User: Fold these one by one.
Assistant:
Number 1:
Amino acid sequence: MTTFALIHGGGGSAYDWHLVEAELHRRGHDTVAVNLPVSDPDAGLWEYAGAVVRAVGERGPVVVVAHSWGGFVGPLVCARVDAAALVLVTAMIPSPGEAPDEWWERSGRPDSGVDDEYELYLHDVPRELGERVLAHDAALNEKAAMERACAEPWPLPAWPDVPTRYVLCRDDRFFTPEFARRHVRDRLGITPDEVPGSHMAMLSHPAELAAYLAGVTAS
């Protein structure tokens, strides 16, 4: 059995992972999905990581899984828990001293050209499911105050010494495959793995993503 610590992206919540959690549980694994403290204006990146560390508790070794904006948090968690691996799912990859607000320009991420939120993030997610998740996440993020976390330089001097994988989603319109391949090569020097799905592949292809995650510790 493996424990997976699941970190959501910006504007998201632990609920984003509920279908993947069910798939991992069915395979005999444990999961910890955490709501980051986005409504706390005093919370910086270490406080975000601390919320995950507290939820993990004494479990270990764990596979830390970070989605999108959560890429700024996942490596910090790995610096504080017994981590077997770090998996970045269509995620931002920080450099030392780089704030999340700076990442967009420094990474060279192109504008998507898609204005509709649903088409940008969830175009392959069943509408009823997608609307339910959007409503849940919007309510949780109604009083979000992430200014400190977004403006704070990423605090690690180097990438943590933990096996790292990157998963790009082949149908992602937010972080396109072309951009993700270049970003991963430039920042991590590795080749990303690929799964089907949009930016929210955990909702559109939960079985495929769970199967990939379950294979991380088996390989």
Number 2:
Amino acid sequence: MSNPDALLVDIAAMVESEHSNQMPLTVVVPGAVITGRLAPESLWHERVAEVLAASDHLKPFAALFAADEGAPRSGRPTHLHLHVARILQGSYGLPHTGGMYRIAIADISSWTVGDLSYSDQ
């Protein structure tokens, strides 16, 4: 979206200001549908840093995320930060357990409130 949806920006700003990570959201970006829960950027950075720090091979990258987690943000959000998120592909969500995604709001062509999932029934 060359002109980001003002309502989506407001939702992201509310998640940031209230430090809530319970808002389920599904977005459509070029080539993918991604579903998960919005998280404040600082919480997202913290969680990514934890995952990286637990890896022997990726540990040096954790500092990049940990250094940014306390930085004050100014202005309106430009990105969504999703956790327990999955890329929906056919009848599967990848990864099955959910991952951490950072998505530019300007790249979102459509969205809906709610976490989409599939059922075999």
Number 3:
Amino acid sequence: MHELGIVFHIIRTVEDVARQNNVARIRRVTLQLGEVSGVVESYLQDCWKWAAAKSAILPDAVLTVETIPAVTVCEDCGEQYPTVRFGRTCPRCQSTRTHLVQGNEMLIKEIEAVEDEDEVQNSAH
């Protein structure tokens, strides 16, 4: 399960950004995840809940995942098409000279901080 390693990397990155910006607590992290990234979202969510609970900055933080659709382009005819539906064969000309142009990314899109100091202190008790 590589999702745990991915979650550890995301948490380290978010904690670094929080420290650089003097943020005491994170409410939400929005992750953009490619449709064919090979990451299983349900595993990622389970790992997130476990690992974030152990972080001083992220104990109640929610991980929101947005899917980036996979798109492939045909080198022969220039057609762009949905990868999951058609695979590596171009639906227009049947060429297999194709390549993925998006859909295997994983990007931290947004980090939402808890802004109210009282809210940070109340959740610590």
